[in-house]
Amino acid sequence: MTRSADGEVVLHTYPEAPWLPRGGRADVIRGTTPPTPMCLVRVLIVSGGHAFCVRRDGVGKLDLLTRLVDADDPFGHRAIGELMAEVIGPDGRARFVGAVRNTVVSAAPDYPWPTPLAYFGVWRVEGVPVVDGVWLPLCDGSPLAERHWFPLVRGV
């Protein structure tokens, strides 16, 4: 783990991340303030060592609830507020816990995210989900362990 001057802690690095264009790196960072540009927001609801998940768009894999962030919402505040209201209702509270930061210096025209940096944030949300989903364990061997954000769940 490394700590930056602004208090950000790098929990894990995926060098040459296979889901990014050649030479791309992804860092899982813990922090207290959402960085910009935020591209996706995720809701982490934890209960009894389990995370609330839904089927991911089109592929059917279980994952945290996720929403795209509009360009006019660079820190993802509006997106996380709207997603949280849908998932647990209007009285929920969210706390930013960290993000996956993609660093891509040279991208093909079909790469959909900003360069050189793009952030995919995770907010810990307190409340009871009002949407359908399942609870998956957050322990070693969890089916969620392959998710890029998974290092963030330790200690939240």
UniProtKB/TrEMBL annotation:
MF-aspect GO terms: hydrolase activity
Protein name: NUDIX hydrolase
Protein species of origin: Microbacterium jejuense
Key words of the record: Hydrolase
